[in-house]
Amino acid sequence: MFRSIAQRLGATATTVVRSNIQRTTPVVCTVRHGHGKKETDEEVDARYEALFNNPELDGWMFRKACNDLQGMDMVPEPRIIVSALKAARRLNDYSLTTRYLEAVKAKCGNRLDVIWPYILQEIRPTLDELGISTPEELGFDKPELAVEDVQDIH
Amino acid sequence: MAQNLVRLAAKRILSIPQRSISVTAIRKQDVALTQEERDRIYPRIGDRDVVGYGFNGTASYMDREEMPFPAIRFKENTDDVLALRELEKGDWSNMTIEEKKALYRSSYRLTFAEMFAPTGEWKAVFAAFMVCLGVTGWIVIFMKKFVYSPYPETITPEYQQKNLERMIAQRQGIVEGVASKWDYENNRWKK
Predict the structure, then answer these.
(1) Mean pLDDT, 10 residues at a time, chain A of 154 residues
(2) What CA–CA distances, in Å, run from B73 to A8, A96, B48, B49, B51?
(3) Dihedral angle sign, alpha carbons of residues B101, B107, B112, B116
(4) Does domain A41-138 have CATH number 1.25.40.40?
(5) Is B111 part of the contact surface with chain A (CB cutoff 8 Å)?
(6) Please, are residues A30 and A61 in contact by the beta-carbon 8 Å criterion?
(7) Chain A residue numbers touching B118 (CB-CB < 8 A)
(8) Given its phi and psi angles, is residue A34 left (phi above 0), alpha (psi -120 to 50 degrees) or beta?
(9) Which GO terms describe its cellular component (chain A) (predicted)?
(10) How far is B18 from chain A (nearest CA, A)?
(11) What is the gyration radius of the CA atoms in chain A, in angstroms?
(12) How far apart are CA B49 and CA A60, in angstroms?
């Protein structure tokens, strides 16, 4: 008796499964990229260099681009830094250069003694041409002012 | 619901536009704001220039490692700052180190080195931790002196010796336990 019941249940189960499979419509497979196409490193470098070399760049876009560069997991190539320094010269804003050089230094992380001299060596012609001092020459590599953290002010 | 509306309104107050193309402005600025935005923002930030988008679009200043360029300059446009800006338009090689540093300080509050400088906060934390340990020590002493009852007499070595002698005399554990290790003929422990 149980065997016949089991057989009947089995039969209905298989018919249900088969009918479900038959009813499935074919789906077009879309290629998923997550956030879109991934750029190669070379493309990123070229894009930012072109952005900074654009003569219509204004201060807003410069700062936005530098903030974005800071967020990327990379130390910017010397050519990006050079084009950024030249853009700052066009904008007549000196403090941008020092701030950005400090930011690049911060990006070097614990390989500072390897990466920073290389970058300095690569951008030295531009620094001399534009008259920009490095943070070390300005004395900004050591803390100068001590201020109370805003979180500690009660 | 009213609270949410108030919060939304407060958020809008300081925000600057997502993107502004530079046009001729009243004061030379990189970001051109409409009069309405200027009325909204400037009472809160004083005479400082709005220069970018910043971190979230609000006209605020903050030193952050991951976003080195905040939305506004740090210092107000006083005469000496404006004089430095004029100097900036010329050749930068002609500027002295002090002028360059003054320019930096007019736009930014802290250098990166100052942002990362150690605060010595760990000493305060360690001291507080040691004080807590000390208080705990006092509590332990108080408990032992005034709260816990004295040890029972069963703890003394003499009592335990007598107890062991009784166990051997009673033949406790004669097969595998205590008394099995006692040599009854010679009155000593088995070798």
Answers:
(1) 62 50 48 69 91 92 93 92 94 93 92 93 94 91 82 75
(2) 80, 11, 6, 6, 7
(3) positive
(4) yes
(5) yes
(6) no
(7) none
(8) left
(9) mitochondrial inner membrane; respiratory chain complex IV
(10) 10
(11) 30
(12) 12
